[in-house]
TrEMBL record:
Keywords: Oxidoreductase. The keyword Ribonucleoprotein does not apply. It comes from Gnomoniopsis smithogilvyi. This is Transketolase C-terminal domain-containing protein. InterPro entries: Transketo_C/PFOR_II (IPR009014), Transketolase_C (IPR033248).
Amino acid sequence: MVVHEAMVNAGVGAEVAATVQEDPETFVRLEAPVVRLAGWSIPTPLVFEKFNLPDVARVYDNLKKILNY
């Protein structure tokens, strides 16, 4: 799982996930797909940034999905 604060699309996490998925040696060792968890893909004013960032609940929900894969 790649967790970062930027938008989920076209962010650093997307590039990291793509690099892991595209590398044949790494890809065959994965036990579950690479999951990106990031801020929502919407422009966010600084006042509302805390609502856009990944929080513990979102991380926990994604970890449960990965472990149940």
